[in-house]
Amino acid sequence: QAPQFLDVCIEERAPSVTLSFGAPGDHARRAKEAGLLVLHQVQTVAGARAAAAAGVDVIIAQGGEAGGHTGSVATFALVPQAVDAAGGIPVIAAGGIADGRGLVAALALGAQGVIMGTRFVAAEESMSQPRHRERILAATADDTVFTDVFDIVDGMKWPQGISGRTIRTPFADEWHGREPELARQRAAILAESSVPNEAPERAHSAYAGQSAGLVRDVKPAAAIIADIMREAEAVLGALQP
Prior knowledge:
Blueprint: H1 3-11, E1 16-20, H2 25-33, E2 37-42, H3 45-53, E3 58-62, E4 68-70, H4 75-86, E5 91-94, H5 100-108, E6 113-115, H6 118-121, H7 130-138, E7 144-147, H8 149-154, E8 163-167, H9 170-175, H10 179-190, H11 221-239
Parallel strand pairs: 1-2, 2-3, 3-5, 5-6
Antiparallel strand pairs: 4-8, 7-8
């Protein structure tokens, strides 16, 4: 929906570009012709097939456990089927992974790596708001909701089947399941904000995945990676006969 962003990546000779929420199509072709490595994120098996047919370099299989915008197919089911559909193209698993155990599980499903978002929101280097981190640290897998309420307030439209996973907030609890009414009230809610066309603070999202329950501290990104690798090695060691 914003091809100018791809134009910038090509002009600046970015080493790679990640596409998502639609068919790779001309975007993938243009990026590859410009010499960029093309990663394409999918939320369905059909999406993985389309990405493979388009000749992308890497497929990211994003399960519904992921934070932010995602689909509804679970990571554990999606990843191995995406691997089968990829025809040898490397697959990276995303959604619900926040520690070494999840890394090992993803590798066992055929993925060649993982992407973690929620865990690194709680990295010291993250630009996230303190309140966002606090919500993640306090949450379990039971405390997220798959909803359109924040997109309605923000005026964002996403493809069919894509919604946002967020930690429950008072605003989400108030309006989830009442989306038509929220759409009618949108102008009044935006009017509460001191910034034109921006949601007031109470209507801000807290996007995070179901892996939030595995995030218990804030530390440097390097320390998070070291902990994940140490745990993964321990898990693999315990699986040896």
